[in-house]
Specification:
187 residues; alpha+beta; Rieske Iron-sulfur Protein; 2 domains; 3-stranded antiparallel beta sheet; 4 helices; elongated
Length: 187
C-alpha cells in the first residue's frame, strides 16, 4: 500500500524571489559599462564643439570712432569678411529712393541698416561666395555705386541689395547691435 501525499501550495507558501549576489554583479557590471561607454564617447562628442579661437571670434566689438562718412572698412567675424559702410547723406538718400525700384530681392533700406548712416553686412557674394569689390577707394563700385562682384557680374547698390547679375539675393546681414554711438557688436 502506497501512501501518496498530496501537497497543495497555498498563497502563503509561495516564496518571493530574493535578490542574490548574482543580481548585484549584473547591476554593477552594467553600471560600470555605462560609465565606461560614456567616458569613451565624451572625447568624440567634445571634439565636435568649436575650438576656442573660433568661439572667441563668434562675437566681436568694433570701435567705429574715427571712421569718416564715405569710408568703408572690413572686419573679420567668424571667418567671414564684414563690410561696414559709414554712409553719407547722399548714399542714404539714394538707397531710400531705390526702395520702390523693381528689385530681385526686395528690401527696404531701413530694414537693412539699424542706423541709416551705418550699413553692416557680410561681404560675400550670394551667387558663388566671391568677395565683391567696393571696399577699396580705387575699387569699381558697379552700376549703382555699391559693390561689384567681377567673377560673374553681380552689382549691388548702396544698401547692399542685388540690382543686376546672377546673385539670387542681397548681401547677407550679420546679427549686430550698437553698444554705444561708436561701438557695434557683431555676433
Amino acid at each position: 500500500m502506497s501512501v501518496q501525499s498530496e501537497t497543495t501550495e497555498t498563497p502563503d507558501m509561495i516564496e518571493e524571489p530574493q535578490e542574490t549576489r548574482r543580481d548585484f554583479l549584473y547591476y554593477a557590471t552594467a553600471g560600470a559599462g555605462a560609465v565606461g561607454l560614456g567616458a569613451a564617447i565624451w572625447p568624440l562628442v567634445n571634439s565636435l564643439n568649436p575650438s576656442a579661437d573660433v568661439a572667441a571670434l563668434s562675437v566681436i566689438e568694433v570701435d567705429l570712432d574715427g571712421v569718416e562718412p564715405g569710408t568703408r572698412i572690413t572686419v573679420s567675424w567668424s571667418g567671414k569678411p564684414v563690410f561696414i559702410d559709414h554712409r553719407t547723406e547722399e548714399q542714404i538718400a539714394k538707397a531710400r529712393a531705390d526702395d520702390t525700384a523693381q528689385l530681385p530681392d526686395p528690401a527696404l533700406d531701413a530694414d537693412r541698416a539699424i542706423r541709416p548712416e551705418w550699413l553692416v553686412q557680410i561681404g560675400i557674394c550670394t551667387h558663388l561666395g566671391c568677395i565683391p569689390l567696393g571696399q577699396g577707394s580705387s575699387d569699381p563700385l558697379g552700376d549703382w555705386d555699391g559693390w561689384f562682384c567681377p567673377c560673374h557680374g553681380s552689382h549691388y547698390d548702396t544698401a547692399g541689395r542685388i540690382r543686376k547679375g546672377p546673385a539670387p539675393r542681397n548681401l547677407d546681414l550679420p546679427p549686430y547691435a550698437f553698444k554705444s554711438d561708436t561701438v557695434v557688436v557683431i555676433g
